[in-house]
Amino acid sequence: MVAALVPPPQFDDATFDTYRADPAYPSQQGTKDLLTVFSTGGAPAERGGLFRRAKKAPEMKPGVYLDGGFGVGKTHLLASVYHAMPARRKYFGSFIEYTALVGALGYQKTVELFRGADLLCIDEFELDDPGDTMVMTRLLAELVPTGTKLAATSNTPPGALGEGRFAAQDFLREIHAMASNFETLRIDGTDYRQRAIDGHAIALDDAAYAQALADAGAAGTVSDDDFGALVSHLASVHPSRYIRLIDGISEIGLREVVQLEDQSAALRFVAFVDRAYDAQLPVRATGRPLDEVFAPEMLTGGYRKKYLRAISRLNALTHS
């Protein structure tokens, strides 16, 4: 589990140079510049003459929190921080991976494991489970005094008042003991995953589904599961081990997708989608379009951010 605490394969080569800031949203370039300072300790590059005085690097807190909507490149920037920081001991994982580690090793052993680490990157910091949130807060509070730097992301749901300012406020409130250690960096923009996508997630008929899996199977290993059976199986596997379900798979096939009504089943499916997206596995499905898999009332409840993130990712994976 510890060895897996590195950026997902799709971000193996992520750098600040490969992050394409949208000129329409200056906060993207501004955040990139500040994270460069955070990672390297140097000032952002500045154009000018030979005799221009060097710009002093701004003082930064030991932690940065990237606050923004879906698909604005937060994970790319987080991975860039990981790759850019000249650190001997650094870790990159999702919130659920860190909490699963605490569950597996125990709190004190996890503290001992990370004590002295140079950097912890936490992707998709979750605020909906008070117990997990407080465990992470305690863990981070023990690591910062030893010199560990922190970088975290979370999501803002589209349409939230103030374009998601509440996300930053919620984060700082929930980790109140650590709030003063975090610099909040706001990233505006549109979901890049949806820019080239027209309409819903793609749902195939039976013939097209069979052909798609046959084509993919000629070049790799594909899965072919009944949607209901997969959702039921997820209940018997800890979410931290979902990555093993897709190990060696090059494409995911789901038959007879239906809308999920059970909150627990829906949240397990969200965790599975996150792992599939990290691995960039195309998804082929029949039945209901996967962007309609969550019941409408779920999209207005406390887990709204998770479901909307999953919909964005499912849309992208069915078009890949």
UniProtKB/TrEMBL annotation:
The gene is zapE. The keyword Membrane does not apply. InterPro entries: ATPase_AFG1-like (IPR005654), P-loop_NTPase (IPR027417). Signal peptide: none annotated. This is Cell division protein ZapE. GO terms for biological process: cell division. It comes from Microbacterium flavum. Keywords: ATP-binding, Cell cycle, Cell division, Nucleotide-binding.
